[in-house]
Write a structure and sequence with these properties.
It is built from 13 helices and 18 strands. α1 (13-25) packs parallel to α13. Among the domains are: 2-39 and 206-249 and 314-380, Rossmann fold; 86-173, no CATH class. The protein is an alpha/beta fold. β3 (45-47) and β4 (53-55) form a beta hairpin.
């Protein structure tokens, strides 16, 4: 039997944050079960043979909407500015992304006298769609066909492998459109990267005798042996948890290819997007953000695929409808003190800071209710 006060499935950001809060404030023992051989989930970073810190599962950084979450994480790390600048390669030219005044001036070869001038110009380009129903309609209604065709359409098809007409407009809503010259990818002013990396931050967070982590362990192979006294938190795919009762949810995965270069820098910013060229979507030089000093640099290229570990939930009608069925089962599990948390478990695209905020919110709920929900004996999943 595998027995603990609290069981957490997954040692990603959600698992680490909840384990820390549960052990430090509730004084309960916590066991984390993790299928990989490391902590931190997709935020995991490590040093390569050249001593370069790189993000194994794609670039991550934190953009805080409030200082409360940042202050909590500051107990486990110092910070460096998260100067994340993105450019999109269109017809062999690099354009600032997201779309801003500089992008519009470069693309349309027109100088705007003011924000209002630019807005009026785009107003004439926009398609008059009152209630956009999908990704394509949303972008067309905001920026018009020329921008959509060059910057969004092919990137979206490459990333998601479905027509933009079939994707939820909420995905397009994540892409900011600006009438200013802000060069940074996000508007939040609290943009930071853990100074020694994400892995170091999560290791410090879970450095507690009350926290045990079982790496290289498949939850589904031993779930019948698990017993918990207070509650369990599950951070994996919901369809798999319920043995695909209603069918499989669709996910997009990524293949990463890394290459060292004997050069201090190769790109002029951290990320280049390639909407219309190559099979990969973007190339990332994380050194622009980590600020490491070295004669070498490392470039990662991302190739979207439908096979492999799940990264992105595919938000279309089919999957939204299917997940609603699983949500009813998730509510029933909550009655058994089993809680689903995180991007995979909630089948929702979260930024890293949003994932952590959501985990902290769940902890506040558990803190108020765990004594009342305590069982006299250890609870089995079956």
């Amino acid at each position: 039997m595998i027995i603990s006060d609290v069981i957490i499935i997954g040692a990603g950001p959600v698992g680490c944050v909840l384990a820390e809060k549960i052990t430090s404030e509730l004084k309960l023992n916590c066991l984390i079960i993790e299928k990989r051989n490391h902590i931190g989930g997709n935020c995991y970073d490590e040093y390569n043979s050249k001593g370069l810190l790189y993000h194994k599962y794609g670039p991550h950084y934190l953009r805080f909407k409030n200082r409360k979450t940042m202050n909590y994480l500051s107990r486990f790390t110092k910070w460096i500015p998260g100067e994340y600048i993105v450019k999109s390669s269109i017809d062999d030219k690099l354009y600032p992304m997201p779309i801003n005044l500089d992008t519009l001036e470069m693309f349309f070869k027109k100088k705007f006298r003011s924000k209002i001038d630019a807005f009026k110009f785009i107003e004439k380009k926009r398609l008059k769609i009152k209630n956009p129903k999908n990704f394509e309609e949303f972008v067309l209604s905001k920026l018009g066909r020329e921008i959509y065709e060059k910057f969004y359409k092919n990137y979206t098809i490459k990333q998601w492998n479905i027509s933009p007409k079939s994707l939820s407009k909420e995905i397009a809503g994540r892409l900011p459109i600006r009438f200013n010259r802000n060069p940074y990818y996000v508007k939040e002013k609290l943009r930071f990267m853990p100074k020694k990396g994400f892995t170091a931050m999560f290791k410090k967070m879970t450095n507690c005798k009350k926290i045990k982590i079982k790496f290289n362990t498949d939850f589904f192979k031993l779930r019948k042996k698990i017993r918990f006294k207070y509650f369990m938190i599950y951070t994996g795919e919901p369809d798999r948890y319920f043995d695909y009762k209603y069918g499989k949810l669709d996910w997009r995965s990524l293949i990463f290819k890394f290459k060292n270069h004997k050069k201090s820098k190769l790109q002029n910013c951290v990320q280049y997007n390639y909407p219309n060229d190559y099979k990969f979507t973007r190339s990332v030089e994380i050194k622009h953000v980590t600020k490491q000093k070295s004669n070498y640099t490392i470039i990662s290229k991302e190739f979207p695929t439908s096979k492999g570990d799940p990264y992105y939930p595919i938000s279309n009608k089919k999957n939204i409808s299917l997940f609603k069925k699983y949500e009813k089962l998730i509510l029933n599990e909550k009655k058994k003190n089993i809680f689903f948390e995180g991007r995979l478990a909630k089948y929702k695209y979260f930024n890293t800071d949003e994932v952590i905020e959501s985990a902290l919110s769940l902890f506040n709920f558990l803190k108020k209710n765990y004594r009342r929900k305590k069982t006299s004996d250890f609870t089995s999943l079956f």
